[in-house]
Recover the amino acids of this structure.
């Protein structure tokens, strides 16, 4: 069953189509194409990602940077939305979730960041909400 | 022993008392402790720690205890109050009774997803979000997740979970494809498959319910009361069914120390799944 607010036009939003239309990826630094990294398969399989990924998605700035070290269970990436960190976690099947999405998981840090933007409306991520495991 | 009612059957007076108890609990500062506790106990199934609340067999008894503790505090405020439940296989639209202004208020608005109606709207002055994923002080909802639409789980999908006679199976995490617990908790192998039952309801409500501070939305309690009821329903359907794992996992098991067996205590309390097997000592469902 589809639920729309009454003032919204009918939109058949197909995942991927809507996101691709909204995302405006741009190149950082030199002219080389960015390779946004996606990790499939088991943890430990992923190639060493050395590039930073940036885009503006639905008006929000996403920046994903590889980290050299990470705590157990945390993927070796830093995800920022409008400059604020998004706490990202990993599941045993290799997919990702975040503090903004605790009941779904995604194939890549980029998809996780976009889903967080979808979930948080127009607000900024909190700098103070502690999230312990 | 008291009764937990279907929210659609609450009288106007019962709704008023429930809402008032929530607002008082919030005003006293105790409500936000439940928000942070739930966040503290979210861990995923990668890593070495004990996982007791999600992606694990004790998902059901942990939340049963979590709700019981919360409900008892509400009853200290008003002894006549109990947690209502939301049967989302039946009350599955944005206009259902629970979303009216005399109970939870309605959907969030466009843009900031802010809830503008009912007792938990920020504009009412009585419900400020202090422990949120974002800086926003207002409660948010986003029914149906319009950017990538989802529907509430159907009765058929729920039955698919309840029909499984086994409670849970190794490796006791979010990847298992059989057993009642994960079919009901709702983790699947990918976003393409979607997520089932319990998880999907969190996604459908959206806003705070989608994230790590989900108890900020009081619908959390009504949703989890139904989750709790369905656990009982599973037990009735399968009288010989039992919580698994029954015994402590041996040291060479990869999940040793990560999941709680039937008689082991669940943090932060000293109570085991076995002790929470039967809720009829405390409450019944109408």
């Amino acid at each position: 069953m589809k639920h729309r607010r009454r003032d919204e036009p009918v939109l058949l939003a197909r995942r991927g189509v809507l996101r691709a239309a909204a995302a405006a990826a741009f190149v950082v630094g030199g002219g080389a194409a960015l390779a946004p990294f996606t990790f499939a398969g088991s943890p430990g399989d992923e190639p060493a990602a050395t590039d930073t990924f940036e885009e503006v998605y639905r008006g929000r700035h996403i920046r994903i940077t590889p980290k050299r070290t990470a705590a157990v269970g945390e993927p070796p990436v830093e995800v920022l939305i409008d400059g604020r960190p998004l706490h990202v976690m990993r599941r045993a099947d290799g997919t990702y979730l975040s503090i903004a999405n605790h009941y779904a998981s995604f194939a890549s840090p980029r998809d996780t960041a976009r889903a967080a933007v979808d979930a948080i409306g127009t607000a900024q991520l909190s700098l103070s909400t502690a999230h312990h495991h | 022993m008291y009764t937990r009612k279907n929210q659609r059957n609450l009288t106007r007076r019962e709704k008023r008392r429930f809402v008032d108890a929530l607002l008082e609990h919030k005003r006293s500062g105790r409500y936000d402790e439940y928000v942070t506790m739930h966040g503290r106990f979210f861990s995923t199934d990668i890593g070495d720690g004990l996982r007791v609340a999600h992606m694990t067999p004790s998902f059901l008894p942990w939340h049963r205890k979590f709700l019981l503790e919360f409900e008892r505090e509400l009853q200290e405020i008003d002894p006549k109050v109990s947690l209502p439940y939301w049967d989302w296989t039946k009350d599955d639209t944005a206009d259902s009774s629970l979303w009216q202004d005399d109970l939870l208020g309605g959907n969030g608005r466009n843009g900031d997803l802010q809830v503008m109606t009912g007792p938990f709207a920020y504009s009412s002055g009585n419900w400020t979000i202090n422990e949120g994923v974002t800086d926003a002080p207002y409660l948010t909802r986003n029914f149906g997740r319009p950017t990538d639409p989802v529907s509430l789980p159907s009765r058929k999908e729920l039955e698919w979970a309840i029909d499984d006679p086994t409670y849970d199976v190794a490796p006791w995490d979010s990847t298992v494809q059989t057993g009642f617990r994960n079919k009901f908790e709702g983790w699947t192998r990918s976003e393409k498959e979607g997520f089932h039952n319990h998880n999907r309801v969190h996604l459908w409500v959206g806003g705070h319910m989608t994230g790590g501070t989900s108890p900020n939305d009081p619908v959390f309690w009504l949703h989890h009361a139904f989750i709790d009821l369905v656990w009982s329903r599973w037990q009735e359907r399968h009288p010989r069914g039992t919580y698994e794992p029954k015994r402590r996992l041996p040291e060479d098991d990869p999940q040793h120390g990560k999941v709680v067996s039937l008689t082991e205590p669940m943090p932060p309390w000293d109570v085991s799944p076995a002790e929470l097997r039967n809720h009829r000592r405390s409450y019944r469902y109408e």
Summary: Chain B has a mean pLDDT of 96. Chain B is about 30% helix and 0% strand.
